[in-house]
Amino acid sequence: MIKIHQRFICLIFFMCAGWKVSAQKTDLSKLQQQVESTISKTCAASVFITDYNPATKQAYGGRYSGVVVNKEGIILTVAHATMPNQIYEVTFTDGKKCTATGLGRVSSIGVAMLKINEKGIWPIAEMGWSAILKANEPCISIAYPASFENRIPVVRFGYVAEVSSATQANRIRTTCLMEPGDSGGPVFDLSGRLIGMNNNVEMSLEANYEVPIDLYRKYWNALLQPEDYKDAPIGEFLSPDTIRKVAPVFSDIKLYGNSMVETEKKFGSTVIRIESAIDDKKIYALGTIINLNGSAYVLSKSSIVGKRAVLEISKDKLIETVISYRDERKDLVLLKVIGVSIQGIPYANIAKGATRQQELGKFLCSPLPNGEASWSVIGSAKFDLEAKFRAGYPVITPNHPASFFIGGKSKIRDGFSNVYIHDGRLTPAECGGPIFDLEGGFIGVNIARYSRTSNILLAASEIADFIKSAIFKR
């Protein structure tokens, strides 16, 4: 039995505190290819929805997600996202905009439908069948989280935890993380078929609930009418024979456990725990060990490393360091290791990583000092995260379950250039460590926990530039 610490349950592989790993070795790279292929097939049909005033031609108010499912421009979303006959602005992943009108809505079930008003050729997603889902089946969600002001679609990877939730009626529970703005976002199986729609969360990161796609099939004809149903209308009968014919090949996520463990072992010597104090309060961070010109350095997140920092080799052994360089804009600090030699990432590997382009859905491994790791996928294209909260924007914590999660958000979590979003479950004290891909390539550093769903990956190019400034240009 391999025990996995509950705080670091990876989105890809784990269901609870631990499970028995299959003796079968299953290739992670093939699973990654499936995920990337599914994203490529489905992302264009995933849309951002907001209220729209036809008189002023301005978008305003609520922000949600949805997915186009046929050439007539039918968009599926969830009931709390739309109202019948109301006009909405719809934005596609390429920035193209159109308007849509709300059709039917069944709030007691959670289903809703819109129709695009303009004529056009729209990217569409294939509808699957939620009745054939199985526990541990991999899935991805694509939606527009409000924490990033719904500017970009964000991918999250997980698995079906419960085909039929034990606590919420007519819901699938998955481990694809969700937050406000994601409501109405599609969830796909690895055949690229739509299996559910993001609906709601509870405080636990394991509690992400989807409306099953079969409910949209059942109430399809009723939803085509612009009516706000107070009670569930008469639905269509879904033939079990029809459902069985479309059943895809099932892939159990637990079969990838051995491959994951082997990958984690490669990176254990690249991360270390840092202890320091700020305002007389002891704090911790993770650090990325770097070898440069025969000397050992540790790079970390500057805002959680005090003026005097030591490295925790073990509970009884600490190593002294000196601050070599800080960059407050990048929120990075470089510590020089004193008196001992420790192995880490050669600078050449960091420089090489700076030249790589990263793809949506690429698997990421964030090693932890205890020999475990946090697994995630790249969820966005590379972008610049403007300094909103760092610049003094008022921080308002809404009374929503998505605002309360283990560890909370990093204090310094924006104002970075060249970042990616990923769905790792790291706490703020676990920022500063390295991130690798399946081939062992250095991707960057975890620079912030941004929200319930998102960590911020500072790209290798930013790390390489920082080291050049610290070592070569002083």
What can you tell me about this protein's structure?
It is built from seven helices and 30 strands. The protein has helices at 28-42, 213-218, 220-223, 240-245, 257-265, 347-353, 460-472, and strands spanning 2-3, 18-19, 46-53, 58-68, 74-78, 87-91, 97-106, 111-116, 126-127, 138-143, 154-162, 172-174, 186-188, 193-201, 208-212, 228-229, 271-278, 281-292, 295-301, 310-314, 317-327, 332-337, 345-346, 363-367, 373-377, 383-385, 416-422, 434-436, 442-449, 455-459. The longest helix has 15 residues, at 28-42. Strand 14 (193-201) and strand 15 (208-212) form a beta hairpin. The chain has 474 residues and is mainly beta. The chain has three domains: 9-258, Thrombin, subunit H (Beta Barrel), CATH 2.40.10; 268-348, Trypsin-like serine proteases (Thrombin, subunit H, Beta Barrel), CATH 2.40.10; 358-472, Thrombin, subunit H. The strands form six sheets. It has a six-stranded antiparallel beta barrel. Strands 10-11-12-15-14-13 form a six-stranded antiparallel beta barrel.
Helix-strand makeup class: mainly beta
Give the terminus-to-terminus CA distance.
51 Å
Radius of gyration over C-alpha positions, nearest whole angstrom: 23 Å
CATH architecture of the largest domain: Beta Barrel
CATH uppermost class of the largest domain: Mainly Beta
Q: Percent range for helical residues?
A: 10-25%
What would the CATH topology of the largest domain be? Thrombin, subunit H
**For the report, how would you describe the main beta sheet?**
6 strands, antiparallel, barrel
Mean pLDDT score: 88
Number of strands: 30
Q: Beta-sheet strand percentage?
A: 35-45%
How many helices? 7
Strand order of the largest sheet: 3-4-5-8-7-6
Total domain units: 3
Q: What is the 3D form?
A: elongated
Low-pLDDT runs of 5+ residues are 1-25
